[in-house]
Write a structure and sequence with these properties.
The protein is an alpha+beta fold. The chain has helices spanning 2-16, 65-68, 194-215, 260-279, 292-310, 315-332, 339-342, 351-367, 372-387, 407-418, 423-434, 446-464, 509-521; strands at residues 28-36, 41-47, 54-56, 69-70, 76-79, 82-85, 92-97, 112-114, 120-123, 136-141, 148-151, 154-156, 160-163, 170-174, 177-181, 184-188, 222-228, 236-242, 245-251, 436-440, 471-474, 477-480, 495-499, 502-503, 525-530, 538-541, 553-558. The longest helix is centred in the middle third of the chain and has 22 residues, at 194-215. The relative contact order is 0.08.
Length: 577
């Protein structure tokens, strides 16, 4: 049986890899990449010079080449950071199962993406040598009959030859919709609803126009928009930026029936990813750690400003959205932890987005208190010019602090990021000095209400389930992990939708949290209610005090900033080559 299977795989390789070998330079490892639609597989051949027996490759972590790659004919031995020639072989065959996208990992690029229409986009970085290597690797992407190969600004039925230029971006094989808008190439999954295709095709040129006006031309990456349904069916976004590509993933179900708020989130998602064309350009690089406050938080502030411009909104209209991210940040940070230490984790989640945007707003106001939009983008322009053509260490968020910034303001911002449990105090001190009008929230909006409800649920689970917390947030409550076996009163596999007889959907969460805090302070039980009243209500003995919950603020306005909106430009600048 094993011999028969191996024979079938070898025949498959014989068909897929029938494209003629190409004339790479003699000192280069020639790499051909293709996609076998019939077998949902990615096929790769390596043709090293006779003197090369081991091909070092860039790390793929947190993904594993040994888990993803196979050599059906045994011509290659696969290591996580290298591929080794099996004696007696000069052409190495590698195959990847491309039937589904690998599980997403935070702060990592998937080795490939599978679209709903069968298109497969491959990350070219997995075929690059380590930075210190002198071995050249020459990549070529070879489409099969009926396929297009799309990437690096090209869409063709002919092979895409990238040579040894150390390219970083996705290259797609398939037959998606392909559109050009000036120099911008869009490849759109045919599984995308037509209304979304039209909206994105309309939004992208207008957003690029806004950024070009404020930041100048930039080399335009190829933009991939794709659908990826999942088992949970929860609608969400997932985007990535590389120098040569932007990927916009629409996850889950229900994309054919969107409400106005969903359309606004879609436009904002596109605006965030497009801004990375500038703030993650080759000149600036893509550092991690604290720099994520500028990279991701900076893209969030750019999103707010760009989408506000499309709607001709004033600062008074877009400022509350930054306030919403400030409030979210307070829930992202664990007590007695600094923002900086939280960012040391490989997967910091939403923290750099939520905590970074208010920080970037403070820098924008420090740069230009009367026109924070212009001030903000000027900071990025100046940072880019300072680093252009130079070999410098990775940039840090503090590199964006404007020269001449008041020492007290600078200290408040640094303290907000570096001192434990100091983000709220540090940022509020900065906002006061910068003229941001902030007020305590007298009533919580929907997002903060859900955060408060989640905090209450987490506390009750820690008390009742031996310190374990595991649930899924749903529109009408919190579904307790059915595999959780350590709870005494809470019923695993059921959805809690009320506390103390008050449904989460309608409760005044500020008042409810005070009531729960009072009961927990006295060791009294807290009644929990379940969706559909099955099982019956239960009383969780609350034997531990409820930790103080963050105090949300409302960002009400800016002193000295006109309330009128930015006038749209009459010109339409050319997007850079």
């Amino acid at each position: 049986m094993k011999t028969a299977v191996a024979g079938v795989l070898w025949l498959v390789f014989g068909v897929v890899l029938s494209a003629p070998a190409w004339a790479a330079s003699p000192d280069c490892v020639a790499i051909d990449v293709s996609v076998d639609d019939a077998h949902h597989a990615i096929d790769v051949t390596f043709r090293p010079p006779a003197s090369v027996t081991r091909i070092a490759l860039q790390p793929l972590a947190p993904y594993s080449r040994k888990a993803l790659w196979q050599s059906p004919d045994g011509s290659a031995q696969i290591e996580d950071e290298a591929i080794v020639v099996t004696p007696g072989h000069r052409v190495l065959h590698v195959r990847m199962d491309a039937s589904r996208t690998p599980e997403r990992q935070d702060r990592a690029y998937a080795p490939f993406l599978r679209f709903a229409d069968g298109t497969v986009a491959i990350d070219t970085q997995q075929f690059l040598p380590p930075k210190e290597s002198t071995q050249k690797l020459c990549q070529r992407y070879v489409p099969a009959h009926g396929q297009q190969v799309i990437g690096f600004g090209e869409a063709s039925t002919q092979p895409l030859d990238l040579g040894d230029t150390s390219p970083a971006g996705y290259v797609a094989f398939g037959t998606p919709y392909v559109e050009r808008h000036g120099d911008l190439l869009l490849a759109i999954d045919k599984g995308t609803p037509s209304t979304i295709r039209e909206r994105v095709a309309s939004d992208v040129p207008r957003l690029m126009d806004f950024y070009v006006r404020h930041l100048g031309p930039a080399k335009t990456p190829t933009l991939f928009l794709f659908m990826q349904p999942d088992e949970q069916g929860v609608r969400s976004f997932h985007g990535d930026h590389l120098p040569a590509s932007i990927t916009l993933g629409l996850m889950g179900q229900g994309w054919d029936s969107l409400e106005e708020a969903d359309w606004q989130r879609l436009t904002g998602f596109v605006a965030h990813e497009l801004f990375h064309t500038w703030n993650s350009s080759p000149t600036l690089g893509s550092p991690e750690g604290e720099a994520l406050l500028a990279k991701e938080g900076g893209a969030e502030l750019a999103r707010v400003m760009a989408t506000a411009s499309l709607s001709n909104q004033s600062s008074a209209q877009w400022l509350p959205r930054v306030g919403g991210m400030y409030n979210a940040c307070l829930f992202d940070i664990h007590r007695a932890q600094s923002v900086a230490s939280a960012l040391d984790k490989r997967a910091p989640g939403g923290l750099p987005y939520d905590c970074g945007a208010p920080l970037m707003l403070a820098l924008a106001l420090a740069a230009n208190p009367h026109d924070p939009v212009t001030g903000y983008f000027d900071l990025w322009t100046k940072l880019t010019e300072q680093r252009r053509g130079k070999s410098l260490p990775d940039f840090a968020w503090m590199d964006l602090i404007p020269p001449g910034t008041d020492a007290a303001l600078r200290d408040a911002l640094v303290r907000a990021i570096h001192a434990p449990d100091a983000y709220a105090d540090g940022m509020q001190a900065a906002f006061l000095q910068l003229g941001v009008k902030v007020e305590p929230a007298s009533k919580l909006d929907a997002e903060n209400s859900q955060r408060y409800a989640g905090a209450l649920m987490s506390h009750l689970m820690r008390v009742d389930c031996g310190g374990n917390v595991s649930f899924w947030t749903q529109p009408d409550g919190f579904l307790i992990d059915k595999s959780l076996s350590t709870c005494h009163v809470l019923q695993a596999g059921n959805t809690v939708d009320a506390l103390l007889g008050q449904p989460f959907a309608t409760a005044d969460m500020l008042a409810l949290s005070k009531q729960v805090a009072e009961r927990c302070a006295h060791g009294s039980p807290v009644k929990v209610g379940y969706k559909g009243a099955v099982p019956p209500d239960g009383d969780v003995p609350c034997t531990q005090p409820l930790p103080a919950l963050p105090k949300p603020l409302v960002f009400a306005g800016l002193d000295g900033v006109p309330s009128t909106a930015e006038a749209p430009s009459r010109s339409s600048p050319t997007i850079g080559p």
